[in-house]
Amino acid sequence: ATPTALMVGTGRSARMGILIKNGEVLEAVNDVKTVIFDKTGTITVGKPQVTDVIGDSAQVLGIAASLEQSSEHPLATAIINKAKDSKLTIEPSQDFKAIEGKGVQAVIDGQTAFVGNDKLLNDVSVSDELKTQMATLQQEAKTVVFVGEGQRVIGLIAIQDAPKPTSKDAISALKSQGLKTVMLTGDNQAVSQAIADQVGIDQVVADVLPADKADQVKKFQASGKVAFVGDGINDAPALSTADVGIAMGSGTDIAIESGGIVLVKNDLRDVYKALELSKKTFNRIK
Ligand code: ADP
Ligand code: MG
User: Where found in the cell (predicted)?
Assistant: First the structure.
């Protein structure tokens, strides 16, 4: 490989907002068979909004916001914003605990309360009515979290994170090159499938805990090289494990450090451009 060609190639891509950090990704790119995407913040805008509150909405939102004060998750931001918009006072809470891929819990007025998905519920039972309402909301591509106090679920909050306007085009460009597209997410199957259908993703792997994202990438590597596109702290191991790690420029520092390619413009269509440019650069220098 001639260093000059490498620099020319990467210099040109840099002007397009595609940073190629090393030569290794260039070598892998010709053999990429699968492109795996994180969902939140990568395929979707990553700024979820609360759309529905089931139960006594002031109470449900109030408790949820009180717990989410200490969380930096996009869902937490959505809940706090909604509580503030509704002019609710957000009470303090103690002993905050984030449970990865599940939700959060804390103590309010001496009682343990929680917000999160069904994996957080353990022995707490949910009425059939709430289950039906949850299923309906999930089919509308909304993420639903339970809000509970002690051993009792007091309501649901539905949160919607719309796909980015360019996601559909970005996916179809990759598919037109014969690449398989996959969504890998900690969110549940129903919501993830609804969003995948909106943007044309071939396959969904849902309910994946952050610690298991890298293992999922390895599974797909059994059938060829893998590119992984992500933005979050929880995507860093998958970005390093993939043959081509592609980080969104808007992502967390650790994601950007872990990616071999960084998309400065945060345009998902640049995944296709990055792969094409890398191929051209590699074929020139080899
Ligand atoms: P993703 O892969 O989509 O970025 P995460 O692993 O961050 O997902 O979260 C997976 C799921 O865990 C969320 O969809 C939600 O159900 C639950 N969860 C995680 N953090 C929180 C939180 N702070 N509040 C409520 N629910 C949460
Ligand atoms: Mg994400």
Answer: Cell membrane
